[in-house]
Amino acid sequence: MDTNRPPTRATSPALALVRLWRRLTVVGILCALLLSLASPAGAAGFNATTASANSTFSSGTMQLKATTSSTTCYSTGTGSGGTVSTNSATCASGSPIPSGSLSPSTSSSASTTLSSVGNANAPASTVSSASCGVAQMSDVTGGDTALAFGGLTYQASGPLGSQAVAVDGSTGWAETTTSYSNPEGFTELIWFNTTKASGGIMGLGSQANPTTSTPADHDRQLWIDPSGRLVWGVYDNAVYELTSTATVDTGNWVMAAASVGTAGMQLYVNGSEVNSSPTPTIAQNYTGWWSLGYASLANWSDIPTNYYFSGSIAQAAVIPSQLTAAQVSSLYSDTTLASYTAGIEALSPTNYWPLNDTGAVPYEGAVPNATASTTLADYSSNSDTGTAIGGLTIGAAGPTTLGASGISLNGSSEYVETAKSYANPEGFSVATWFKTSSTTGGTILGFTSSQTNGAPTNSDRTLWLDSGGNLIWEVNNGTVDEVTSPGAYNNGQWHFVVAEIGSSGQQLWVDGVKVASTITVTSAQNYTGYWHLGWGSETGWTNAPTTPYLTGSLAEAAVLPAQLSAAQISLLYSASSTAAVALDMSELSPSAYWPLQDSASNVCGTVEVTVQQTVGTTNTCVYPAGTGSCPSPSSSYLLTGLASRSVTAPTSSTAVAVQITMEESTTSSTAIAGLHMLPNFAFGIGSTTNIWSAQVDFPYAWAEL
Amino acid sequence: MSVVSRITSNKRGLIASLAAVAALGMTSAYTLGGFSASIADPTSTFSSATLQLSEGVGATTCYSTGTGAGGTVTATNSGSCSGINVLTGTLDQVPGGTALTSTITLKNVGNMPASVANLVTGTCTAAAASDDSSYAGSDTTGFCGKVDVTVANTTSGATDKCVYPTQAAACPALSNTYTLAGLAGTTFNTTPMSALAANATATYVVTVQLDSTAATNADQGLTATLPFTWSISQ
Fold first, then answer.
1. Which of B20, B96, B229 minimises the CB distance to A689?
2. B41 to chain A, closest Cα gap in Å
3. Are B85 and A23 an interchain contact pair (Cβ–Cβ within 8 Å)?
4. Does residue A111 sit within a domain?
């Protein structure tokens, strides 16, 4: 027992109750204080919460499906569904245009069904022929593009793991676009594969397109005789022919090499000399074009009845020297395409056609013997057609990012006139790609009161480069007002320039960036005038170019009836194809739009076309515009005038069928017969308000002329 | 000595006291002796109040108990409303398209007034979103900054109208100045948030639009997610 504890006090029940009450009071206070301290919200004790963790906002998708008679393509390029990125897809198969050979007397049609397969419908849709040319086979060293004719198939299986073109033995062949004056001391190289004892493999004819009639001169020819042996023929006041001992129509790839020069004539098969002669040492003296898959063999001996080769050809080249046996053997010993290509290139070839082309890249330069064109189509609805003046080059190289062509100008006499006059354009933009290395400056675009390049009464709205390469955008607002880029752009590279005037001021943009502007100038001079490309009148103005003509190139030029926003300019600058530019431009309702993708030959201008849409059961003619079904094709409606046309936009519930009908003009030159015309048809959906777009492009679709 | 330690040290006394009270309640009628008169109040109770919040959007209503109307109140008193999407969630929006609105009705369904109302937004995240045909976007960079948003307090009688951007007036027109990126990670706990008396309601309108700067095709098929947390406090 704890003796130190105080003695227990006697306690009455009442007193015990009083003590208990006191203790309970203290405990209650302490409990309240404890609760107060333990409350997480301090004085604000209770709280209630609702949480919406799944709140989301999603952007839609704008997707286009194009279905031809043989294939279905989607704008993602990945089939139905997939990741949306550029939303512009190339359809590698299928064709929205009539297949086969066009006829001058009977039209043919093809239909494509457009469907909106995203969850956001577009308010606008277009069908466009963004460029037009003919299929080419590139010369990777000499730049002498070969053109495809007739029954020719691209990217067939070739030797050394390469690709080849297959020709059908009746209509298919190719011809170079450049002629050569009397090649001497040279070697022809070509791989071929055939099972036919027939056909010309390669030759030089003095006439473009020797299939239409026998050229006056034709030698330097390789062919397969009726016994299946390879023949090499040269003419030097007499016919000289070397023939292989063995047959070559074995169905295996054969490398042929044939030469003539100071060492005489030699014929090699698969790296080994199979025949030779010390004479002749020269060939016939004339100017001609190389043919591949065809040789004009009339008047030669030991010839087949069919001059068209049947089989595949690849790796054709012309070497400007007589190769030695060792050199030929060395080439044949190459076992890979890379080493063979390096071997060919080491021989400094005049021409080297690998023949691995896709057939989808349009050649827009001059076609031998075809009528030259000076027409530069306006793809807007205003038909402000441009005319190439002074012989400027149509079908020159264009911006590489677009895979485009353009026009090149010589800086002294060449420029583009336009057809339509405009009364006092205000609140507008001009846009174009340009390239120059000039140190004397030159005009990109100008607006004068004269349609020609004569001294005008009025001139302003002019865009030029000064001698230092700086861009200047001028308007006359009572005084000559110029804004000048701080940087120079005469660096030989393609640049995209936009110049604007309107309520947002005078602005100059280069490659998507605003480089100069003033808000104080919002209008230009009031007069009626014409647009010019590559020429303007800057007399007396500050930093005027030394010459008003541009030395350089232009592509994708347009006049747009509003000041473009930064987003719109960025969209145009970032377009990755001519078809994409055409779609973007169409959505901006241009006053004039000259893609400058025209063909120098009058190839596409001789093809008559109509475009008809069907929505439900209602037919509407899109080109030429009209109600009901389209009229029969005629010379009034040519492919070069189609440009970009609006069609009813498909929705998620309603598809739109687009029927393209073509017919060859009766005035078409025989020189273009058989060429593979590439109109580069594209279908798009989009709108100016949301800028999104979806596109399906058919660059591989071709029709034979 | 702290209050807590004092309580601990008196634990024995406290237990004794509570036991005595209990014993008194049971035996007093018999132990105070002599004449007595008494009145018993066997139904006397003391109850704490409840502070409860409901959030309604359209036909969907969530409760802070997380169990629907009524139910047991736990310590967290926080309900997760997976069925509510205040940003509308549709998959067909185009740049500069029609603005979408979502009206959120908050109600204090408890029986005590709240003195504070809070809106807390979380982190905005962007991701590719497949549509019905399995098309999905590819570039989520900056997407939260391309969704314009305002949050308005449309409660009848609310003096200050716009929660985001906070201003003593109706919300401005949608623009790229005010986006989900700007709204994210923010706490709004003063006016124009409306504190709620018991059984009172407040309405907020969230307005969203895909900004016209979402102009490239890579802006298609994307989703921005931003958690919204509403709360009221005593």
1. B96
2. 19
3. no
4. yes
Q: Exposure string (b/e) for A168-182, b if CB count within 10 Å is 16 or more?
A: bbebbbbbbbbbbee
Q: Please indicate, yes or no, whether residues A177 and A85 belong to a single structural domain of this protein.
A: no
- Range in A157-166, A255-264, A580-589 with the lowest mean pLDDT: A580-589
Rounded-to-integer distance, Cα A604 and Cα A601, Å: 8
Residue finishing a domain among A594, A625, A645: A594
Give the domain range for residue A334: 139-356
Domain extent, residue B165, equals 53-233
Q: Which residues does chain A have within 8 Å of residue B53's beta carbon, measured at their own beta carbons? A: 48-50
- Residue B44 burial by CB count (10 A; 0-12/13-18/19+): exposed, middle or buried? exposed
Which residue among B77, B79, B215 places its CB closest to the CB of A571?
Answer: B215
Q: Which DSSP category does B206 fall into? A: E
Interface of A with B in 43-62 (CB under 8 A): 43-62
**Residues A345 and A386 placed together within one structural domain of the fold:** no
Compare all CA atoms of chain A with the CA of B212 and give the residue at the minimum distance. A690
- Residue B47 domain-assigned (yes or no): no
Residue A554 and residue A568 in one domain = yes
CATH number at residue A460: 2.60.120.200
Q: Which helix H or strand E contains A348, and what residues bound it?
A: none
Q: Are residues A334 and A431 in the same domain?
A: no
Residues A678, A647 share a domain? yes
Across the interface, do A47 and B77 touch by the CB < 8 Å criterion?
yes
Q: How many domains does chain B have?
A: 1
> Does A55 sit within 8 Å of B85, measured CB to CB?
yes
Residues A253 and A315 in one domain: yes
In terms of domains, do A633 and A697 share one? yes
A28 touches chain B (CB under 8 A): no
Q: Examine residue A51 and state whether it is found in any structural domain, yes or no.
A: no
In a domain, A316, yes or no: yes
End-to-end Cα, chain A, rounded Å: 127
Distances (CA, A) of A140 to A148, A182, B105: 16, 22, 71
What residues of A are in contact with residue B68 (Cβ under 8 Å)? Answer: none
In whole angstroms, give the CA distance from residue B53 to residue B114.
10
Give yes or no for a contact between A484 and A470, defined as CB atoms under 8 angstroms apart: yes
CATH of the domain at A77: 2.60.40
Whether chain A has a CB inside 8 Å of the CB on B95: the answer is yes
User: Could you tell me if residue B12 is inside a domain?
Assistant: no
Q: A50, A116, A570, A653: best mutation site toward chain B, by most B Cβ within 10 Å?
A: A50
- Report the chain B residue with the minimal C-alpha distance to residue A47: B233
What DSSP element (H or E) covers A330?
helix A325-333
Closest chain A residue to B6 measured between Cα atoms? A30
What tens digit of pLDDT does each residue of A219-255 get? 999 999 999 999 999 999 999 999 999 999 999 999 9
Within a domain: B64: yes
Domain closes at, from A526, A561, A594 = A594
Burial class (CB within 10 angstroms; exposed 0-12, middle 13-18, buried 19+) of B31: exposed
Task: Specify if A37 maps to a domain.
Answer: no
- Among B206, B213, B220, B234, the residue to mutate for chain A (most A Cβ within 10 A): B220
User: How does pLDDT run across B106-165, given as a tens digit for each residue?
Assistant: 999 999 999 999 999 999 999 998 887 888 888 899 999 999 999 999 998 877 789 999
In this predicted complex, what is the ipTM?
Answer: 0.80
Lowest mean pLDDT among A238-247, A339-348, A569-578, B139-148: A569-578
- A62 and B94 within 8 Å at the Cβ level: the answer is yes
Distance from CA of B166 to the nearest CA of A (A): 21
